[in-house]
Amino acid sequence: MDIYQALRENVFKLVAFEEEEWKDFISYWRPVHIKKREYIIKEGQTEKYFYFVYRGVLRGYTTKDGDEISIGFTYDGDYSGAYDSFLAQQPSDFSMQAITDCELLRISYTDLMAMFDKYKSAERWGRIFNANILIGMARRQLEVRSFSAEERFERLATQSPHILQLVPQKYLASYLGMTPETFSRLRKKR
Amino acid sequence: MDIYQALRENVFKLVAFEEEEWKDFISYWRPVHIKKREYIIKEGQTEKYFYFVYRGVLRGYTTKDGDEISIGFTYDGDYSGAYDSFLAQQPSDFSMQAITDCELLRISYTDLMAMFDKYKSAERWGRIFNANILIGMARRQLEVRSFSAEERFERLATQSPHILQLVPQKYLASYLGMTPETFSRLRKKR
DNA sequence: TGCCGAAATTGATCTGTATCAAGTTTTTTC
DNA sequence: GAAAAAACTTGATACAGATCAATTTCGGCA
Q1: Domain around A97
Q2: Among B134, B18, B53, which Cα is nearest to A88's?
Q3: Which bases in strand C are touched by protein, i.e. have an atom under 7 Å from a CB?
Q4: Taking the mean position of all CA atoms in its chain, how far away is CA A163?
Q5: Is residue B155 part of a domain?
Q6: How far is A147 from chain B (nearest CA, A)?
Q7: C-alpha distance from A58 to closest chain B C-alpha (Å)
Q8: pTM of the entire structure?
Q9: What is the per-residue pLDDT across B147-174, written as a single tens digit (0 to 9) for each?
Q10: Mind listing the pLDDT tens digit for each residue in B49-65?
Q11: What span, in angstroms and rounded, lies between the C-alpha atoms of B90 and B101?
Q12: Number of domains making up chain B
């Protein structure tokens, strides 16, 4: 499937645009290719773009006392970037780096805001999209607070086994809030 | 200030409604009084309402192995309820209980959705409101992951000293992800 | 105002996970 | 395709914060 078609299907899951509106809306999205280890945004910058991931994996992380803490990952079909920085138009607390080569589509903040002004469908899509992100964050928040390192590992391994292949272990470890050593031991124990 | 006026000012901070629209919008909100220790929602129920807190303090918590884990607190001027359950219209993973007597305004899910359909201003308010909640959650997520128990206590004490008075310590302790004993020791050390 | 149950404090001990260190394996690069 | 760098594993030790237990203090209410 073509990259614009992929975005279309994804957006239409939440809101069906009129064809005229959609043509206009999609015209503001631009394809971007980035290579493994390149960044779409670095800590301290303000996020100018909102990204759709057509192919690839990205990792978000912040730094604390020189160490990296992985915040999350995005895959094919996800949206990416420092979304809170984008929304607030404030400097980001984290960086977003490609773990594999990526094909992305992006729209600028100004263009997206213009779309929100212009079309009620876009406004609605924005609201529901935010709601869905929020629901996911709430779920993850509860997850982190309710489970021990071992339990979190176990849940990741059973619920998202593909991640174990895609993402280097040291990133997964810090995502789960443990050291690579602990991660390695839990994996062995399994 | 009057309870409806308080909500009006709060909503208008994000979006200025037309007067006609506002009159219609506000007519769907109903005042609710609840007493200390009463619940607005219990774990397992689906949240039917979205609340505005005019006066009072509420606590959200989930249960794990019989122990309560406090998720968050809402105060005068906040919105409350199990918002993720409300948005998804799925059973809530946590309960929301009054810590003091509370005066609230609430609107039902059906009525709010009808307002979103009817007015672009409402839709926009919904989008921006969700964005703000999301930004707050992202900040807190980073907070929990980047700091030790002692650092989290210190930050709470300096950034929100009023909470230390308003909320019983055992709730704050579990909110910060530590036992009441640890909380007590950190407080003493200060 | 005084009583009772809940909340907070304090001390002693335990434990899961971090840290440090030394290999081994995998990936990158030239 | 060999050398260098990075990632992962494994073992030994350290420690922050949990748990358990015994008082003390506080808050609600008769």
Answers
A1: 3-117
A2: B134
A3: 7-12, 16-21, 28
A4: 14
A5: no
A6: 9
A7: 18
A8: 0.93
A9: 988 999 999 999 988 888 889 999 999 9
A10: 999 999 999 999 999 87
A11: 27
A12: 1
